[in-house]
Specification:
The complex is a heterodimer.
Chain A lengths: L3 E4 L2 E4 L5 E7 L12 E6 L6 E5 L3 E2 L7 E6 L2 E6 L8 E7 L7 E2 L3 E5 L1
Parallel strand pairs in A: 2-11
Antiparallel strand pairs in A: 1-3, 3-8, 4-5, 4-9, 5-6, 7-8, 9-10, 9-11
Chain B lengths: L2 E5 L2 E3 L5 E8 L8 E6 L5 E7 L6 E3 L7 E6 L4 E6 L8 E7 L8 E5 L2
Parallel strand pairs in B: 2-10
Antiparallel strand pairs in B: 1-3, 3-8, 4-5, 4-9, 5-6, 7-8, 9-10
Classes of the chains: A mainly beta, B mainly beta.
């Protein structure tokens, strides 16, 4: 199974400042079709997860452009260009290139300092 | 818009059974594979099972293989998860999710004596 490792696990951020979350996979996530199926999810307190980013860098409809995804192979990053209060929650990366199983990172808790 | 509404959760003793349901609306259910994903309280996300759009193939996490069965009724726009031989470690919020990981609200399953 592909192991997804996120860092940091806790990220206190000042409002308006940037934030960056790293996600590493135990093997390359490049699929046989040439795509890389790496997703990022946001889970706000008391809510279900919501997909923010798919295939490394594609934002879902309605996701603010302060969220961006990048990376390749085994190293991926989610960046928030300027954290807002509504961004508080837990962020998960998930791979869908080598399934089953689909596997998630441990989650990174973003909070306001 | 996509709506997924889970039901059937509750409290059950170890060794018992439960059947979860997920009613879908807002999209053509029969054209999407569907997942079950669970989240233990205060912890991360674990993929549980997947079924193809036509029900032709099912996939399971090793932790539930042989105990859980995923199924669907496309005429009723409904996804199911039959859970047998439940263990305390199966205690979690269970989410259904569309193949592209749009999520439902979740239903709580507690396995306790």
């Amino acid at each position: 199974d592909v192991v997804m490792t996120q860092s940091p696990l806790s990220l206190p951020v000042t409002l308006g400042q940037p934030a960056s979350i790293s996600c590493r996979s135990s093997q390359s996530l490049v699929y046989s079709d040439g795509n890389t199926y790496l997703n990022w999810f946001q889970q706000r307190p008391g809510q279900s997860p919501r997909r923010l980013i798919y295939k490394v860098s594609n934002r879902e409809s309605g996701v603010p452009d302060r969220f961006s995804g990048s990376g390749s192979g085994t190293d991926f990053t989610l960046k928030i260009s300027g954290v807002e209060a509504e961004d508080v929650g837990v962020y998960y990366c998930m791979q869908g290139s080598h399934w089953p199983p689909w596997t998630f990172g441990q989650g990174t808790k973003v909070e306001i300092k | 818009q996509v709506q997924l509404v889970e039901s059937g959760g509750g409290v059950v003793q170890p060794g018992g059974s439960l059947r979860l349901s997920c009613v879908a609306s807002g999209f053509t259910f029969s054209t999407y594979g569907m997942h079950w994903v669970r989240q233990t309280l205060g912890k991360g996300l674990e993929w549980v099972a997947f079924i193809r759009n036509d029900g032709s193939n099912e996939y399971y996490a090793d932790s539930v293989k042989g105990r859980f069965t995923i199924s669907r009724d496309n005429s009723k726009n409904t996804l199911y998860l039959q859970m047998n031989s439940l263990r305390t470690e199966d205690t979690a919020v269970y989410y259904c999710a569309r193949g592209d990981f749009s999520w439902g609200l979740g239903t709580m399953v507690t396995v306790s004596s």
